[in-house]
Design the sequence.
């Protein structure tokens, strides 16, 4: 499981079970206000987990974050250009 923005990664080891024909189990796992029909689930039996070192995880930004940074860069470049004209 990756969280690029905060440079965190969780490794999970275990076994998964695919369940398609247990309506009682499927009903018990439904999220409130989830409108789609749930037809199957995957149950994970976690055997081990480990948080990894963030050293080699690149930071990734959303489109909105990049747009905000680009707007700020443009603003700062304009301020710098004005100061150089003085």
Sequence:
């Amino acid at each position: 499981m990756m969280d690029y923005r905060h440079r965190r990664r969780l490794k999970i080891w275990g076994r998964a079970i695919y369940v398609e024909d247990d309506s009682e189990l499927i009903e018990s796992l439904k999220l409130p206000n989830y409108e789609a029909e749930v037809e199957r689930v995957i149950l994970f039996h976690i055997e081990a987990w480990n948080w990894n070192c963030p050293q080699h995880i690149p930071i990734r930004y959303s489109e909105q974050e990049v747009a905000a940074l680009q707007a700020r860069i443009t603003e700062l470049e304009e301020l710098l250009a004005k100061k150089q004209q003085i």
Notes: Helices lie at 23-29, 63-85. The first strand starts at residue 2 and ends at 3.
